[in-house]
Amino acid sequence: MHERAASSSRHIPRLNGSALISFGIKPVGIYTDEPVKTDPNLKDLDLTGITVLGEEWGKIDVEKAASLAPDLIVGDWWPAEKAYSGLEEGVDEKSKKLKELAPIVGISQGESIVDLAEGYENLAKSLGAKVDDPKVAANKQRFEAAVTAFKTATAAKPGLTAAAMAPSDENLSIANPKYAPELLDFQRWGLKVINPERPDPSFPYWETISWENADKYQPDLILWDSRVFTPTVNAEYGKKQPTWFKVKAAKAGAAVSWPGYWLHTYGDFAVELEKLTTAISAADENVGN
């Protein structure tokens, strides 16, 4: 891992650290929504010499960030909230002072992960990174092959429906593809991801429903939010919430991890697409009937 690209800028990214580090840009600090050791964006990355400024959503050590004297802060732009990562509604007011330290830039969580990945590649290039590294090209090739395989799998099962879900002990949330670029990509490539009927007005990324109404949607395949997914999570929620198995796909065990809101690179997207393609190929398009 290179220490820093040719640019002399000092950067503090959040969530999208992998997007910059993969191009050889080593930030002086990062802040995340969860412990660094479990953040999928940072898996297998060399974080030596990088200061961790926060490992919980909405909490950033701004004093420590100021001591790093950053020239630039990098964070995703979230359209529904009209804010950059770390400056959304609900974060600690002290954390919002981060915007006083340096200009903030970032790519929008818009209509496609492809656009997001390309955006960060262009940003890295503008900061002096060499984006023609063979590893970058190899990741793109793997991604393109994964998209082709995904399209083939969905074309073979034109009736297959899927719903992206995130459970909690209190309720069940159904993701709204309008604000999830990876879900829009899945739809674009042939997977019929369900659009929830009534997204929450205050936070339209989701439609929140009670466990009593867990069977409101009956997909053939459940896309579990990867932030809570484990191989046994489907069975665990069936024990905690008996209505979970009213969802026919849940009862059939037709569930797979969904990379919710964290993808930033071609390499990561390729890996996740390959997993999803395997699940789609094994799924029964009549489960939800």
UniProtKB/TrEMBL annotation:
Q: One GO cellular component term, please give it.
A: outer membrane-bounded periplasmic space
Where does the Fe/B12 periplasmic-binding domain lie?
58-259
Family matches, as SUPFAM superfamilies: Helical backbone' metal receptor (SSF53807)
Output this protein's name: Iron complex transport system substrate-binding protein
Any GO BP annotation: iron coordination entity transport
Q: In terms of domain of life, where is this protein from?
A: Bacteria
Keyword annotations for this protein, in alphabetical order, are:
Signal, Transport
- Compartments where found: Cell envelope
Keyword Signal on entry? yes
Q: Which family, according to UniProt?
A: Belongs to the bacterial solute-binding protein 8 family.
Q: Which InterPro entries match?
A: ABC_transptr_periplasmic_BD, Bact_iron-sidero_bind
Principal localization reads other
